[in-house]
Amino acid sequence: MDTLELIRQSQSGNKEARDRVVTENTGLVWSIIRRFANRGYEMEDLFQIGCIGLIKAIDKFDTSFEVKFSTYAVPMITGEIKRFLRDDGMIKVSRSLKEIAYKIRIAKDELNAQLGREPTINEVSERTGFQTEDIVMAMEAGAEVESLYKTIYQGDGNAIYLIDKLEETKDENEMIIDHLALQEILNSLEEKDRNIIKLRYFMNRTQMDIAKELGISQVQVSRIEKKILKTMREKLA
Description:
- The protein contains 13 helices and 2 strands; from the N terminus they run H-H-H-H-H-H-H-H-E-E-H-H-H-H-H.
- The protein is mainly α.
- The chain folds into 3 domains: 3-84, Four Helix Bundle (Hemerythrin (Met), subunit A); 95-165, Arc Repressor Mutant, subunit A; 189-236, Arc Repressor Mutant, subunit A (Orthogonal Bundle), CATH 1.10.10.
- A two-stranded antiparallel ribbon has the order 1-2.
- Mean pLDDT is 77; it is low at 87-91, 144-149 and 165-174.
- InterPro entries: RNA_pol_sigma-70_dom, RNA_pol_sigma-B/F/G, RNA_pol_sigma-F, RNA_pol_sigma70, RNA_pol_sigma70_r2, RNA_pol_sigma70_r3, RNA_pol_sigma70_r4, RNA_pol_sigma_r2.
């Protein structure tokens, strides 16, 4: 069964299909988190965060897209990790990635001049010889972070800021419902399990910190956390 069919089944509620897509793409997650090594976090922690991004990509991927799933998943996984490492100065783009981004920028300019339009990722890939996943990663990493309060229009003394043009991605009522559902699930957990989730995801504690506090090993904490998250996903679904 190919990846697209597995994704369709996953989006229809087939958990086995989702697990299989996740398993088949763990190598992709590891290849991305290696770029974020030496940030003071355990690689296992970053892997789990990357898997969250992977699952989001599985849920949101439009199978009618004329693009490989891995190409779509790369920025989703990267974005999830970046949100986890959102402190100022935490994310540093490697020199090799900067060089790739520079070559891609040159190729895009050349193709734009030749074709009279914005080139596709596949066209840039053919010109540069880079894999589409690497191109997406380089473009994502090299993108300039704009201030939400950057002025994009100034007229009659009234400035319009970038934040004013951002569309709401989620209805406020829907956010409240999700919050209540999550709170209900947390309350249904045993006290020890609930404490671990709060320490990990609300207080940003590492598995090693929690292990020392509870007097168990980091491996045990990892196993317990995975079991709890699986239970929570099932209840939330």
